[in-house]
Amino acid sequence: MAVDLPPPVAAVSAALTETEVKVTSGFRGADIVIYGAVFDPSQRPSDLVVLVSGPEQPIRLAQKNRVAGIWLNSRPVVFTGAPGFYIAASTRPLNQIASFSALRELNAGLDHLAIAAPEEQRIERRYGVRDMVVSRLGSDYLDWRRAVIRLKEKAGLYAAEADGVRFVDRGLFRAQIALPTAAPIGKYEARIILFQDGRPVSIRDRTLTVEKVGLERHLYLFAHQRPWTYGLASVAIALLAGWAASVVFRRS
Predict the structure, then answer these.
(1) CA nearest 89: which of 2, 14, 164, 201?
(2) Which candidate, 52, 50, 49, 48, places its Cα nearest to that of 21?
(3) Would the pTM of this model clear 0.85, i.e. be above it?
(4) Are the CB atoms for 109 and 160 separated by under 8 Å?
């Protein structure tokens, strides 16, 4: 009696050309190539999605309102966290690869990107400034979320590339991810997802580190670990520079 066997399981293997990016004062961005292969004995049609996300950061926004003919910023609002960098590259448009629910579960694509927000709206005080924290249940949540994505896209930090992954040979693929000069410092996660028949069948995760080196690294760590001291030192240096300039011009 013939036995129907399940089709062999497909798998994806992937690697990065670079796992560390060094940022100096002359940094002008970098191109990271993700490459690999799809292993599927049955050779079924496959799609690949590559998601690269940078370290999460709080995001502060303000909306301009016109008051008595003058444009003024409203009270700032804050998202508690969102990727500082995010790109979704794929072999074709995401909505042709998988269903809405499958993409949402994987945070695949700008429409499905997870941006952290609490259920309840609250006020936070940071450095003496009172900010409104955006609630994901608020009526204006989607408007603020769209504003975050729009601003990040404009800065070159968010993107969706429907043809960003290409098969270069039988089963071999390649994706090139451009890191702009404004790319945040920290750990990046690269997720490579193999889809077949609209379902994710294999996932590989890889890590990329973007870090400052040399004097820039020391200044970066000082500014983030001791912000108040860094701020006071910056003010002192500015005052000293102003005083020195006034002395020079007075003598001349």
Answers:
(1) 164
(2) 52
(3) no
(4) yes
Q: What contacts 208, CB < 8 A, 6 or more positions away? A: 16, 18, 19, 20, 21, 32, 52, 187, 188, 189, 190
Considering only CA atoms, which of 34, 38, 36, 37 is closest in space to residue 9? 38
Query: Could you report the per-residue pLDDT of 169-179, keeping only the tens digit for each?
Result: 888 999 999 99
The H or E element that residue 127 is part of is none
C-alpha–C-alpha distance, residues 137 and 231, integer Å: 36
Task: Say which residues have a Cβ less than 8 Å from residue 8's Cβ, sequence separation at least 6.
Answer: 40, 41, 42
Neighbours of 130 (CB within 10 A): 10
Tokens of 172: 């071999």
Judged by average pLDDT, the poorest of 116-120, 121-125, 133-137 is 121-125
